[in-house]
Design brief:
GO molecular function, one term: L-histidine transmembrane transporter activity
Subcellular location: Membrane
Order of helices and strands: HHHHHHHHHHHHHHHH
Low-confidence stretches: 181-191, 412-417
GO cellular component, one term: plasma membrane
Largest sheet: none
CATH topology: Amino acid/polyamine transporter I
Radius of gyration: 21 Å
Protein name: Solute carrier family 38 member 3a
Number of strands: 0
GO biological process, one term: histidine transport
Number of helices: 16
Length: 417
């Protein structure tokens, strides 16, 4: 994982990183906006996007100095084996949570799509309408073959198609803002809250942080980029595009359902008309997008496992295949038994996301950049210290709010879909 000449183009790298950023997080943002208001949501989204871009800058600076393009190896260079293990565990937890949330959507939306295609008004327990069976079939037939690719760059075309599906999703749901207004739901401009604060606001920051976490994929994409000096531009463009898509998706979902929006947006849209052609196309597009995102997110987990368990082993096809198979099996079990997608967003976002976005890039930067080049009292290192402090505060705050939310009994995390 040292510096080498990559073969992936700038555009394909943007597609891959954008696809890594985008995922099921986009479907939880309307719920976040409903619990913060439009103005506060926009402020938080902007801050998290800027901080994510800055943390990628720190990672790339560290990588450029030591000539290493593996997150775990940066941890090893900074703190030895504990640093490598901490980075590997955080990446594993974060990306397993992400893949679980993607497949969770497949589990709940795929049966609705098939039901609409077959015009089944009252399901009678057919196996092909069982989400547990369908998520296993999708994992074996679609995700596993893509996850077995040797290099991440090969997935650039599927990433581009995945992003196209999400653009179609945004274009399609915008007319539903006026189409779905019913007499029993208040659909007036006065209903739009600029700022809203309630106990569910505790989930907003973790959901936003989870939505912008792409840091485990940054260095693998950096490794395969043909012109490696443009990696920061790749990151900035990807974050900017997803920033716009996130805000529009949240706004359209919020303006359509207001306080009635659920933690998983597509499940809310399914209340309109399950047989409507537009709604059906939206479901298919999002299902396709999140399914094609899973292989991208699986690559860093496999690399992290290899770095932690097989650090000195060269590439081996049986091990490559076995790790992917075991990971997908575990994630399928997690998806089948996970109680609610909001719990996944909240817990994972409140623990591993602060480490990957704030803490690790900052402390790696402080340790790796030589004091001769940047003394500890220099502005860049002072900013890095503050950045790490923000990460610790964010983790403590988010976990505290979620615990308070659960103990108060007002959390929707315990309710099923």
């Amino acid at each position: 994982f040292v510096l080498s000449l990559g073969k992936t183009s700038f555009g394909m790298s943007v597609f891959n990183l954008g696809n890594a950023i985008m995922g099921s997080g986009i479907l939880g943002l309307a719920y976040a906006m409903a619990n913060t208001g439009v103005v506060l949501f926009l402020v938080l989204l902007t801050v998290v996007a800027l901080l994510s871009s800055y943390s990628i800058h720190l990672l790339l600076k560290c990588s450029g100095i030591v000539g290493i393009r593996a997150y775990e190896q940066l941890g090893y260079r900074a703190f030895g084996t504990p640093g490598k293990m901490a980075a590997g565990i955080a990446i594993t937890l974060q990306n397993i949570g992400a893949m679980s949330s993607y497949l969770y959507i497949v589990k709940y939306e795929f049966p609705l799509v098939i039901q609409a295609f077959l015009r089944v008004d009252k399901p009678a327990g057919e196996w092909y309408l069982n989400g547990n069976y369908l998520v296993i079939i999708v994992s074996i037939c679609v995700i596993l073959p893509l996850a077995l690719m040797k290099q991440l760059g090969y997935l650039g075309y599927t990433s581009g198609f995945s992003l196209t599906c999400m653009v179609f999703f945004l274009i399609s749901v915008s007319p539903l803002i006026t189409h779905t207004c019913e007499p029993d739901i208040t659909c007036r401009a006065s209903c739009v809250l600029p700022i809203c604060r309630n106990i569910q606001t505790a989930y907003t920051i973790p959901i936003l942080a989870f939505a912008f976490v792409c840091h485990p994929e940054v260095l693998p994409i950096y490794t395969e980029l043909r012109k490696y000096k443009k990696m920061q531009h790749v990151a900035n463009i990807s974050i900017a595009v997803m920033y716009g898509m996130y805000f529009l998706a949240a706004l359209f979902g919020y303006l359509t359902f207001y306080g009635e929006v659920e933690a998983e947006l597509l499940h809310t849209y399914s209340r309109i008309d399950p047989y409507d052609t537009l709604i059906l196309c939206v479901r298919v597009a999002v299902l396709t997008a999140v399914t094609l995102t899973v292989p991208i997110v699986l690559f860093p987990v496999r690399r992290a496992i290899q770095q932690m368990v097989f650090p000195n082993k060269t590439f081996n096809w049986p091990r490559h295949i076995a790790i992917a198979f075991v990971l997908l099996t575990f994630i399928n079990l997690l998806v089948i038994f996970a109680p609610n997608i909001l719990g996944i967003f909240g817990i994972i976002g409140a623990t591993s996301a602060p480490c990957l976005i704030f803490i690790f890039p900052a402390v790696f930067y402080i340790r790796i950049v030589p004091k001769e080049e940047e003394p500890m009292r220099s502005v860049p290192k002072i900013l890095a210290v503050c950045f790490a402090g923000i990460g610790f505060l964010f983790m403590i705050m988010s976990l505290s709010f979620i615990i308070i939310d659960w103990t108060s009994g007002s959390s929707k995390a315990s309710s099923g879909h």
